[in-house]
Design brief:
This protein is an alpha/beta fold. It has two domains: 146 residues, Rossmann fold (3-Layer(aba) Sandwich), CATH 3.40.50; 44 residues, no CATH class. The chain contains six helices and eight strands, in the order αββαβαββααβββα. The relative contact order is 0.21.
Protein backbone atom coordinates (compact mmCIF):
# COMPACT_ATOMS: atom_id res chain seq x y z
CA UNK A 1 0.00 0.00 0.00
CA UNK A 2 2.81 2.38 0.91
CA UNK A 3 4.52 1.68 -2.41
CA UNK A 4 1.45 2.78 -4.37
CA UNK A 5 1.15 5.91 -2.23
CA UNK A 6 4.77 6.78 -3.02
CA UNK A 7 4.18 6.21 -6.73
CA UNK A 8 1.06 8.39 -6.63
CA UNK A 9 2.91 11.15 -4.75
CA UNK A 10 5.79 11.03 -7.25
CA UNK A 11 3.35 11.27 -10.16
CA UNK A 12 1.64 14.30 -8.67
CA UNK A 13 4.97 16.07 -8.07
CA UNK A 14 6.15 15.29 -11.61
CA UNK A 15 2.91 16.59 -13.07
CA UNK A 16 3.18 19.78 -11.03
CA UNK A 17 6.74 20.37 -12.24
CA UNK A 18 5.69 19.77 -15.84
CA UNK A 19 2.74 22.13 -15.62
CA UNK A 20 4.92 24.75 -13.97
CA UNK A 21 7.47 24.48 -16.77
CA UNK A 22 4.81 24.77 -19.44
CA UNK A 23 3.16 27.74 -17.79
CA UNK A 24 6.46 29.63 -17.67
CA UNK A 25 7.39 28.99 -21.32
CA UNK A 26 7.79 31.99 -23.61
CA UNK A 27 5.02 32.47 -26.15
CA UNK A 28 5.67 33.16 -29.84
CA UNK A 29 2.97 33.81 -32.44
CA UNK A 30 3.46 33.96 -36.19
CA UNK A 31 1.47 37.05 -37.08
CA UNK A 32 1.71 36.55 -40.85
CA UNK A 33 3.48 34.27 -43.32
CA UNK A 34 3.97 33.87 -47.05
CA UNK A 35 5.20 30.94 -49.18
CA UNK A 36 6.16 30.96 -52.85
CA UNK A 37 3.64 28.66 -54.59
CA UNK A 38 6.23 27.89 -57.27
CA UNK A 39 8.71 26.61 -54.64
CA UNK A 40 6.49 23.81 -53.34
CA UNK A 41 7.80 20.26 -53.34
CA UNK A 42 11.41 21.16 -52.50
CA UNK A 43 12.71 20.20 -49.05
CA UNK A 44 15.70 21.54 -47.11
CA UNK A 45 18.05 19.59 -44.88
CA UNK A 46 20.92 21.96 -44.03
CA UNK A 47 20.56 25.61 -43.11
CA UNK A 48 22.85 28.54 -42.52
CA UNK A 49 21.30 30.51 -39.65
CA UNK A 50 21.78 34.28 -39.74
CA UNK A 51 20.54 36.82 -37.20
CA UNK A 52 20.47 40.56 -37.91
CA UNK A 53 20.51 42.16 -34.46
CA UNK A 54 21.82 45.54 -33.32
CA UNK A 55 24.22 43.82 -30.92
CA UNK A 56 26.41 41.26 -32.77
CA UNK A 57 27.05 39.24 -29.59
CA UNK A 58 23.32 38.85 -29.01
CA UNK A 59 22.94 37.78 -32.61
CA UNK A 60 25.56 35.06 -32.21
CA UNK A 61 23.86 33.70 -29.10
CA UNK A 62 20.58 33.65 -31.01
CA UNK A 63 22.11 31.89 -34.04
CA UNK A 64 23.68 29.17 -31.93
CA UNK A 65 20.48 28.46 -30.01
CA UNK A 66 18.38 28.27 -33.20
CA UNK A 67 20.96 25.92 -34.74
CA UNK A 68 20.76 23.67 -31.69
CA UNK A 69 16.98 23.53 -31.95
CA UNK A 70 17.15 22.61 -35.64
CA UNK A 71 19.73 19.91 -34.97
CA UNK A 72 17.54 18.44 -32.24
CA UNK A 73 14.89 17.86 -34.94
CA UNK A 74 17.27 15.83 -37.09
CA UNK A 75 18.21 18.72 -39.39
CA UNK A 76 21.64 20.19 -40.08
CA UNK A 77 22.27 23.80 -39.16
CA UNK A 78 25.30 26.02 -38.82
CA UNK A 79 25.33 29.53 -37.32
CA UNK A 80 26.63 32.29 -39.57
CA UNK A 81 29.45 33.23 -37.19
CA UNK A 82 30.87 29.69 -37.41
CA UNK A 83 31.58 30.06 -41.13
CA UNK A 84 35.08 31.24 -41.93
CA UNK A 85 35.26 34.96 -42.62
CA UNK A 86 31.57 35.63 -41.96
CA UNK A 87 32.42 37.93 -39.04
CA UNK A 88 33.52 40.65 -41.47
CA UNK A 89 31.80 42.70 -44.18
CA UNK A 90 31.59 40.55 -47.30
CA UNK A 91 30.73 41.24 -50.90
CA UNK A 92 27.81 39.40 -52.49
CA UNK A 93 30.13 36.98 -54.24
CA UNK A 94 32.16 36.27 -51.07
CA UNK A 95 29.05 35.50 -49.05
CA UNK A 96 27.69 33.21 -51.76
CA UNK A 97 31.00 31.34 -51.82
CA UNK A 98 30.98 30.73 -48.05
CA UNK A 99 27.35 29.60 -48.02
CA UNK A 100 28.02 27.23 -50.92
CA UNK A 101 31.14 25.87 -49.23
CA UNK A 102 29.06 25.05 -46.14
CA UNK A 103 26.92 22.65 -48.17
CA UNK A 104 23.70 24.33 -47.04
CA UNK A 105 20.64 24.17 -49.26
CA UNK A 106 18.78 26.89 -47.35
CA UNK A 107 19.62 30.23 -45.73
CA UNK A 108 17.39 31.29 -42.85
CA UNK A 109 17.63 34.95 -41.83
CA UNK A 110 16.13 36.36 -38.64
CA UNK A 111 15.81 40.16 -38.74
CA UNK A 112 14.81 42.14 -35.67
CA UNK A 113 12.07 44.58 -36.69
CA UNK A 114 11.11 46.16 -33.38
CA UNK A 115 11.08 45.77 -29.62
CA UNK A 116 7.92 47.13 -28.04
CA UNK A 117 7.61 47.88 -24.33
CA UNK A 118 4.32 47.48 -22.52
CA UNK A 119 3.83 48.95 -19.03
CA UNK A 120 1.18 47.30 -16.87
CA UNK A 121 0.08 48.59 -13.48
CA UNK A 122 -0.45 45.92 -10.82
CA UNK A 123 -2.96 47.16 -8.26
CA UNK A 124 -2.27 47.14 -4.50
CA UNK A 125 -3.44 43.99 -2.75
CA UNK A 126 -4.11 42.83 0.80
CA UNK A 127 -3.81 39.29 2.05
CA UNK A 128 -4.24 37.48 5.34
CA UNK A 129 -1.26 36.11 7.28
CA UNK A 130 -2.22 32.91 9.05
CA UNK A 131 -1.70 33.03 12.82
CA UNK A 132 -2.53 30.80 15.75
CA UNK A 133 -6.18 31.17 16.67
CA UNK A 134 -6.92 32.79 20.02
CA UNK A 135 -9.80 31.54 22.19
CA UNK A 136 -12.74 33.87 22.11
CA UNK A 137 -11.38 35.87 19.15
CA UNK A 138 -13.30 36.48 15.90
CA UNK A 139 -12.56 34.14 13.04
CA UNK A 140 -12.52 36.87 10.38
CA UNK A 141 -9.28 38.91 10.66
CA UNK A 142 -10.53 41.49 8.14
CA UNK A 143 -13.35 42.44 10.54
CA UNK A 144 -10.85 43.24 13.27
CA UNK A 145 -8.62 45.14 10.83
CA UNK A 146 -11.35 47.51 9.69
CA UNK A 147 -13.15 47.76 13.05
CA UNK A 148 -11.02 49.14 15.90
CA UNK A 149 -11.13 46.97 19.00
CA UNK A 150 -11.96 49.32 21.96
CA UNK A 151 -11.26 47.07 24.92
CA UNK A 152 -7.49 46.57 24.69
CA UNK A 153 -4.62 47.87 22.54
CA UNK A 154 -3.55 44.25 21.88
CA UNK A 155 -6.72 43.69 19.89
CA UNK A 156 -5.91 46.56 17.58
CA UNK A 157 -2.30 45.46 17.10
CA UNK A 158 -3.03 41.74 16.68
CA UNK A 159 -5.69 42.07 13.99
CA UNK A 160 -3.67 44.65 12.07
CA UNK A 161 -0.64 42.36 11.83
CA UNK A 162 -2.79 39.59 10.35
CA UNK A 163 -3.65 41.61 7.24
CA UNK A 164 -0.68 42.63 5.10
CA UNK A 165 -0.83 45.29 2.40
CA UNK A 166 1.28 44.97 -0.76
CA UNK A 167 1.74 48.27 -2.64
CA UNK A 168 0.96 48.63 -6.32
CA UNK A 169 3.75 48.72 -8.89
CA UNK A 170 4.46 49.04 -12.59
CA UNK A 171 5.58 45.97 -14.52
CA UNK A 172 7.38 46.33 -17.87
CA UNK A 173 7.24 43.61 -20.52
CA UNK A 174 8.91 43.46 -23.92
CA UNK A 175 7.50 42.09 -27.16
CA UNK A 176 10.04 41.20 -29.87
CA UNK A 177 8.90 41.41 -33.48
CA UNK A 178 11.10 39.46 -35.89
CA UNK A 179 10.96 38.79 -39.62
CA UNK A 180 12.16 35.31 -40.59
CA UNK A 181 13.02 34.58 -44.24
CA UNK A 182 14.05 31.34 -45.95
CA UNK A 183 16.16 31.60 -49.11
CA UNK A 184 17.03 28.77 -51.46
CA UNK A 185 20.83 28.51 -51.57
CA UNK A 186 20.99 27.29 -55.17
CA UNK A 187 19.47 30.41 -56.77
CA UNK A 188 19.28 32.76 -53.72
CA UNK A 189 15.50 33.16 -54.12
CA UNK A 190 13.08 33.90 -51.26
CA UNK A 191 10.72 30.94 -50.81
CA UNK A 192 9.11 31.62 -47.40
CA UNK A 193 8.84 34.48 -44.92
CA UNK A 194 6.96 35.17 -41.70
CA UNK A 195 6.59 37.90 -39.11
CA UNK A 196 6.46 36.81 -35.48
CA UNK A 197 5.69 38.30 -32.08
CA UNK A 198 7.41 36.92 -28.95
CA UNK A 199 6.18 38.11 -25.58
CA UNK A 200 8.66 38.87 -22.79
CA UNK A 201 11.49 36.36 -23.49
CA UNK A 202 14.21 35.92 -20.88
CA UNK A 203 17.19 36.79 -23.09
CA UNK A 204 18.30 35.87 -26.61
CA UNK A 205 18.55 32.15 -25.88
CA UNK A 206 14.95 31.99 -24.66
CA UNK A 207 13.81 34.11 -27.61
CA UNK A 208 15.60 31.83 -30.06
CA UNK A 209 14.16 28.65 -28.56
CA UNK A 210 10.58 29.91 -28.61
CA UNK A 211 10.78 31.44 -32.09
CA UNK A 212 12.61 28.51 -33.70
CA UNK A 213 9.94 26.07 -32.48
CA UNK A 214 7.23 28.15 -34.15
CA UNK A 215 9.27 28.51 -37.33
CA UNK A 216 10.02 24.79 -37.48
CA UNK A 217 6.34 23.97 -37.06
CA UNK A 218 5.39 26.34 -39.87
CA UNK A 219 8.13 25.11 -42.22
CA UNK A 220 7.14 21.50 -41.59
CA UNK A 221 3.48 22.29 -42.26
CA UNK A 222 4.51 23.98 -45.53
CA UNK A 223 6.49 20.87 -46.55
CA UNK A 224 9.93 22.46 -46.57
CA UNK A 225 11.72 20.23 -44.06
CA UNK A 226 13.52 17.04 -45.07
CA UNK A 227 12.36 15.20 -41.94
CA UNK A 228 9.41 12.96 -41.12
Amino acid sequence: MKKWKDIFRYSIVSLAILLGTLSCSTSTTLVSSWADPLAQGVTYNKFVIMAIFRNPANGETFEERVSEEFRSRGLKAVPRFALEGMDTDLSREEMEMRVNDSGADGVLIFRMIAVDMENTYVRPTTYVVKRTKNPGWWSDPYWGYYHTYPHHYWGNWHTSTQVVWAPGYWESNLTYRIETSLYRASDKKLVWTATSSTYDPQGESDLAESLSKSVLKSLKRAGYLATK
